[in-house]
Amino acid sequence: MLYTKDGSPPHLTPDLLDAIEDVQGVHLGLQELFEHKDVFVKYRQVKDKGAHDFFALGEHVTFFGIRDPMAFTESPSSGPTQKQTDTPQQPNNPSQSPSSSSSSSSSSSSKPPSSSPLPPVAQGYITATSKKGRAKVTVQDYADIITSLSPDVFSGMSAEVEWRASKKRSHKACHLSSDLLDGLLALLPPHMHQRVFGVVSGAGFKDQRLRSAQDVAKKNVAGFVLSGFDTGETLDERAEMLEIIMQQLPVDKPKLVTGPGRPEEVLDMIAAGVDMFCTYYPHLNTQMACALSFPVSYPFPPSQQQHDAHDPSKLNLRDPVYVLDKLPMVPGCLCYACRTHTRAYVHHLLNTHEMLADVLLT
Q1: With 60 as the cut, is the pLDDT of residue 114 above it?
Q2: Among candidates 171, 137, 172, 169, which has minimal Cα distance to 156?
Q3: CA 197 → CA 31, 65, 101, 138, 219, distances in Å?
Q4: Which end of the chain is more exposed for a tag (fewer CB within 10 A), N or C?
């Protein structure tokens, strides 16, 4: 699922979006769109059309989710981007707490902090954080925006917490998410139940993940969102937790994860049983002026898992070394950007702050 800002893929006009054959779908986020709920409701009343028409998304599959993929800092040592009421703790019993990170090579990829945190736990509602501040989102509010936008698939309403939240906070989130999903299913017409993805919560606690997966597997949902990943866990912790979750979910229903996007992360999670991804990764690399080259060999050797300037999976085209480079961005690639533009030209566009550079990199 392609990352969007305010409902539109960054740097891509509708005609360019249609021209990219590899885009399977787009991600729409509650955090950015909730403040416009009344507009969507009115648009539905007047034109009887939803997200596909409003955002000019054509025939692309739309997924509406609670979490913004870029909402958290991933590094276990840096902590969450919002101040929490419950301080994350590390109890003495390792079976009840997420293990700490021991090395940078086993941690998930890093991304810049965002001002839009995941919705905190609150009794009977969650909160959406937008440019206008925080707003309560009740089950009725969420049902209204879903029925107005009518996305192809959407996340059940849930109170998500990051990986290293306290056990008390995570326990509360699991119970609230179950109640919110039941309330949402009661409000939505039956034909929309086949678009709902139930949310598996539990942060980094195995017992809570187990109970949450067992609970949501019993509900009338079309698939599952595995929440809380890419928020500070190590790759080993992630793999262990995915194995626990997958054993509880039916194999014939799709599983979606929001956040992870590096090639090795995606391939690892596909091998674990994940089917769909909402990722910020292409957008993040465009912001970093990088072209993705993907010299994929799997499993990835350790040298390819390091997140440094020598990462062979991307080219930093701001680097002066490309000022006279006449090669395409990725030799052999048949996309429009690589067929018609050189590394030197994109380097020039980046250094003169031309918007075309971001379009071509995207």
Answers
A1: no
A2: 137
A3: 18, 9, 30, 18, 10
A4: C
Sign of CA dihedral 352, 355, 360, 362: positive
Please state, in angstroms and rounded to a whole number, the distance separating the CA atoms of residues 229 and 162. 8
What tokens does 166 get? 């306290």
Give the pLDDT confidence score for residue 345 in this predicted structure: 94
- What are the residues facing 129 on neighbouring strands? 134
Considering only CA atoms, which of 151, 303, 169 is closest in space to residue 228? 169
User: Can you name the residues that pair with 194 across neighbouring β-strands?
Assistant: none
pLDDT digits (tens, 9 = 90+) for 313-333: 788 999 999 999 999 988 888
51, 129 Cβ separation under 8 angstroms: no
Contacts of 29 (CB under 8 A, 6+ apart): 4, 64, 65, 66, 67, 68
The three state secondary structure string of 47-62 is HCCCHHHHCCCCCCEE
**All residues at 6 or more sequence positions from 97 whose CB lies less than 8 Å from its CB, including other chains:** 89, 90, 91, 167, 204, 205
